[in-house]
Amino acid sequence: MKKANFYSGLLALLLGVLLLSGCETEHRFIKKVSFKGGNQIVVVFAGPVDQRWAENRDNYAVYEKPDPDILLSITEVQLSQDRRTVTLTFEDELNQDQPHIVSMRQIMSEGRSLGTAIVTAKKLYFGHLFSILIGAMIIHNFVFTKYLGLCVFFGTSQKKSTAVGMGITFTIVMVASAMMSWFLYQFVLKPFRLDFLQIIVFIGLVSLSVQAVDTILRKINPVLFKAFGVYLVLVIANCIILAVPLILADNEYNAMESLMLAVGAGTGFLIALFLMSSVREKLEIANVPPTYRGLPIAFVVAGLFALAFMGFSGMSIF
Cα separation of 9 and 15, whole Å? Predict the structure, then answer.
């Protein structure tokens, strides 16, 4: 009983650390930074700020996190009556799918300088996580919108059973390799300035994960292992498997964001395999012209699926 309580407490602690890893306070005098409407950012301070400082647009610099060289044009700065809330209005609509960096130079409160603050405006954290998950799964499906992993996709999508098995295996490998890649990138490659080795390191981690799955699957389910054939080994060099660690490293995702990206990418690949296998099983008994049988008709179907998934482009959940 004590051992069970210990493990449950340890699990709760780990989940708490992961959930809070994206919600740290960036400046002690700033309570909240959030989007408002389509072209406004609201900054809430812990105390009143000087009106003259707050209404000076030159004290603010705002840009999207991926594009630090492009400053956004501020048209108006409004200070609330209690002097605790500043509303920044921008000339153009804000792309709220991207976090925005707000830099405030030498914050003045009651005649005292509280230093420069650099804070981040982004969506609600759980909404942000869900957006990453749905984005990788459907909106930016790696197969139908980025055309990655096509070798394994066409090779294992002839039967539903094989497709589902490969999708689940692929997702497990994806999650394991992505989390190991995130850990090594954050705690080894970045601190020691070895970022240039990330592709080599990520390939090695993926190879390790695939080898582990290969060994386990050979013992647990030999039939499915034989059905995969050479395509299980090809997962090592799969574009999606390598793309996910590179994306999470480039976007500086934390642990939970990396997990959502990996689960979304793996589940998206599973959805693509299941849809394709469902159609290809029907095509086996359909009256397809001899010239189009096999891979040619499979490429045509994949193109139609890609056109359908284009309908999700630009969709925003939160």
Answer: 10
